[in-house]
Each structure stands twice: as C-alpha cells, then as structure tokens.
Task: structure prediction
Amino acid sequence: MENLKTVLLWLWDILQWPIIETADTRVTPWAILYFVVLVVVLLWFARRTQRWLAEGPLLRVRMSESARYSVGALIRYLILLIGLLVIIQTVGIDLTTFNVLAGAIGIGVGFGLQNIVSNFIAGLIIMFERPVKIGDRIVVGGVEGNVVNIGARSTTVLDNDNIAVIVPNSKFITDNVINWKYNNNEVRFRIPVSVAYGSDARQVEKLLLEIAGEEPDVLKLPSPAVRFIQFGDNGLLFELRAWSSSLVDRKGKLISQLNFLIYERFTEEGIAFPFPQRDLHLRSGVLEVRNATEVTEALEGGSK
Result:
C-alpha cells in the first residue's frame, strides 16, 4: 500500500512540473490533461444538446427539418465558444498573457487560414439565409446531388452514384448555385424531339401530349406542352415540356422513360426520325460512281 502511495505521489509530482511558466500563468501536464478532458466533455455535451433540440423542443415548433438543424447547429457553436472560454479560465490560463501569441495567430488567420475563415462565415450565412437546405437538389461548380449535411466549413452533397462530394461553403456564396427545390418539388423538364421533314407537325404535337399524359411521373397540372422550336438542318425540331415532382432527383430516368415511349409510339405511327444529310455539288470534273459488288469482283480478279 505504501508503494502504491509512493508511486501516486511521484506521478502527481510529475504532473505538477511546469511546462510553461509566466508571471501569472503556470501550465503543467495536469492542466493539459484536465483541459483535454473538459474539451472532450464539452464537445459531447454540445453535440447532444444539438440533437436534443432538433428532436425535442424544436420538433414541437412548426419548423422544417433543415431549419431545426440550422438552429441546433448555431446553438452548438455558441456552446462551444462560451464553454471553451470558461474551460481556459478554469484551467488557470490567463489569456491576457498571450497577447503576443494571439496577435501571431491573428496574422496567421489573416493569411494562412483565410479560406477556412471564409468557409466558416459562409456556413453561418447559409444557416441564417437558408438559400440551400438539407434535402435540396443543387448544382454547384459542376457537382449535382442532394444536400445531406451543412457543416461549419463545408457542405456534403450526395450524387446519384451514392458518392459524397464535400463542397466548401464559400462556393455557395461566390458561385452560381442551381437549387431545384428552392420553391417546391415541381420542376419542368425539356425533352428535345426531332422528326423528318414531311411529317405531320400537328400529329407530332398530339402524340407527344398523349405520351406525356400516359407517363405516371408527369404531372397533370401544370399540364405538359409541346413547342415547335425550329426548322433544323436535318428535320423539324420540337420540344416536349413536362412537369414532375417525383423524379426531380432522377431526371435522367424521366427523360429516358419518355424517350422510350416516344420512339415506340412514333415507330408505330410511321413518323420517321431524321438523320444527317448532306448534298454534294461538283463544280467541274467527272465523278465516277461504281457499285460496291463490281469493285469487289474487280479486286478479286486482279489478285488472281
């Protein structure tokens, strides 16, 4: 028992050795260990508080899921800021003695950590203004997918391949952002259709409207529409405009379904699809045209 007491006293003496000592501050291994434990507890408490608010009191208020998350995240950051200041004072570290260090950190933030600070501020702006919310379908910087998480530094976007893309929050402030679900889930899709010259344009319009009406993922209201766009180089160009709310996240599927139906129906009705055609004009000389079979026979006869 005496040996254990001696070992404990020896460890306590080691933990009390000063690592940094100033006129008003004395940093020891024990203070560092105490600080780390308190910070871990603070992080756990802030996270649990955010979850409790989102799933408890805020759930009883008429707020959307993204709004509850934003409020919970802001409260969590506030708890972390206040708690960290309290912990530093509790450990016995006098912040006034680190004015020079704070100045150096400020310079580092201004230069080396500029992007991190801008992303953090952009994250706060996103949470306050809410131009992008969890569950929105967005396109930013060539990335398209659903927003699954909005953090302090970055936003996680999940694409249709189930690949998570981490986008810095500053992108949502400086770049153009397409939000497919900003107002609601109803989005209009445009499907180009080209038919050969000589086709009945009114029949094409009628068939396209019938096809859109038969597709279950196309909304009846707003109703589909057909536009005769232009006389193309190879055929008549139409555009089927159909609204959908169920396949906003999978627009490729809706376009594919409509294209299958259009091809099958037009083939049944005898409406031809155009293909590239070019007219060749010879200003002078003579162009010899020979049958492919004759050329093959001539080559075989020459080889013998």
Observations:
- The mean pLDDT is 80.
- The chain has three domains: 2-112, 131-179, 187-269.
- The first strand starts at residue 20 and ends at 21.
